[in-house]
Amino acid sequence: MRLTSVLCAAALACAAPPLAAHPLAAQTLVTSTGTPYRTSGLSSAQTFGASMAGMSVTAYFADGATANAAWRDLSGGLFGAETSLFRLTFPEDVNTGTFGHDWRLTNAWSAGLTRLVLSGLGGRTVFDVNGDEVLTPNSALGIPLQFRPDVDANGLEVPSPYAVGSTVTYSNVVRVGAATPLGDVFEQVDLVFGTALAGGLTAEFIMDTDSVGEGGTIGPVPPTSTVPEPATVALMAGGLAVLAAARGARRARA
């Protein structure tokens, strides 16, 4: 995959076309076409915990272990994905939904958590990376996944240790109907840690999602069927005519 480097001046990432990469504070953001997806339309740019029910979350660990869970109601005002190895949560009572509010990832396993993959298909959810202007209709402004900064001894914000060297890849670009995809919303986000999240520790990050909504549809774009060229059609027709004539001659002889 060819990557084009772009420098973002703002803390929020610039809109990136498919197949692009640029630094985002201490981490790298990549957007990739992947498998193109199509939706009937976004119902809301405000996505809450309950809106993402069914979204798939998979965690990978340094010892080769993996764990997968579907997003669901965890009770106590939290929605998320949880197994015996990890827990990812988002509070349901945030008024503005996922835009700019903390997601919490906890590693409950002994080995370091090295990668986290979220697939929005099962939860009719898409991930919005564009923070400059509204592109896909009803998507509003987005925020790419980025770790919350730490605060040093002087009270100054410094990049999170988990952001340093990490790569966030957005893939499976999503379009509305037959429109051209605008490169701002994606079906999957893949976080590869620069420094593994150790067992028993929690990392916080922000990330924006939009909702396809109840009754909406989302899925991979079907492959385009090939329409034969006129010359090919004429050739096929001629061959069929010859076969038909041959059958008729055999029947006459019989």
Task: Note down, in words, how this protein is organized.
9% of the residues lie in helices and 38% in strands. By secondary structure, it is mainly beta. The chain folds into 2 domains: 201 residues, no CATH class; 27 residues. The termini are far apart.
Please provide a brief summary of the model.
With 254 residues, the chain is mainly beta.
Characteristics of this structure?
globular, 254 residues, mainly beta, 9% helix, 11-stranded mixed sheet, 19 strands, 1 helix, 2 domains, 6-stranded antiparallel sheet
How many individual domains?
A: 2
Strand content: 35-45%
Count the DSSP helices.
1
Largest sheet: 11 strands, mixed
The ordered string of helix (H) and strand (E) elements is EEEEEEEEEEEEEEEEEEEH
The amount of helix comes to under 10%
Note poorly predicted spans: 1-20
Which structural category fits the helices and strands?
mainly beta
Draw up the topology in text:
Layout: E1 20-24, E2 27-31, E3 37-39, E4 56-61, E5 66-70, E6 72-75, E7 78-82, E8 86-91, E9 102-107, E10 113-119, E11 125-128, E12 146-147, E13 150-151, E14 157-158, E15 167-176, E16 185-197, E17 202-206, E18 209-211, E19 218-220, H1 230-253
